UniProtKB/TrEMBL annotation:
GO terms for biological process: transmembrane transport. Residues 1-28 form the signal peptide. CDD domains: PBP2_TRAP_Siap_TeaA_like. It comes from the Bacteria. This is DctP family TRAP transporter solute-binding subunit. GO terms for molecular function: carbohydrate binding. SUPFAM superfamilies: Periplasmic binding protein-like II. GO terms for cellular component: outer membrane-bounded periplasmic space. It comes from Stutzerimonas stutzeri (Pseudomonas stutzeri).
Amino acid sequence: MYKNKASRVVALIGISLSIAFGHTVAHAQSDKVFNIRLGHTGSPEHHFQKISERYAQLVDERTGGHVKIKVYPSDSLGKQVELVEGTFIGTNDMVLTSDAVLSNTVREAGMINLPFLFRDSDHVRKVLDGEIGAALSKKVEAQGAVVVGWWENGFRHITNSKQPITKPEDLKGMKIRVPEGPIFVETFRSLGANATPIAFTELYSALQLGVIDGQENPPAHILTQKFYEVQKFASRTGHIYLSSPVLINKGLLEQLPAEYQEVLLKTGNELAAVHTKMVLDEEASQWQQIEEMGMQVNDVDKAPFVEATAPVIAKYREVFGPDLIDAVVKTN
């Protein structure tokens, strides 16, 4: 009897200690602050900074101040290729990058950059926020990073110092800087240009020194990087769409309590559409400012450009698989 009573006492003490220890662990976890660094290539005035700061603010609020994200603009943490590689292997926490850079590790992400693949921004959001975006995210996760959200960069347009671009023939022999991705190179070669990959951080000086004649980017970069100082003509070709995936190292994410992981991922996904709207809302005034800065802006008939770049689509139907390309085209 005594033995049974003693056993019950020991058991009760054990339960009490377990409960007390559980409270201690939970309390310790609730007191811990996780500090995360997020780098991107945009200037402090760019919408990348605005949406990243908004993300950091929401994560802070939704985790009760226990996840702090510090945002580093202007490639101040390192160049994009380095940050993306670092996020996969764990030497960098988070990066807001481009699918072009991401495609160096996850080849299928390059599909997003195929010329004239997307009809408009609504089409983009339906693709990236749907099954196709989810499938691409799984391929990213298999390499060691997690897609927090497919954020926005926008459709790209050509600027140069020589002449207005109204038809593909106007690009013949022109040296155009492109990002470090094969689809960009092949697209501009198909248009007759001399496609020249140059790091974004070196782009302004390359334009200023005449190493290249032009470049292609959304209006936000034309404005915030002051390309209008070294370029005369802007042609609204909308030839390639570039998304801005936000990546976090998978190991780092999994170190966080489950509820914080959920906040990071849900908030990032939620802000994708917000970022797209932000970019679209800003673009009308940005084009106006670009003209006010002295650039000559023109629109183009896209049909000849679509025809000239059709061989690029045909080639990459074999690389990525025709089913994937067809699924994007058929998305409504």
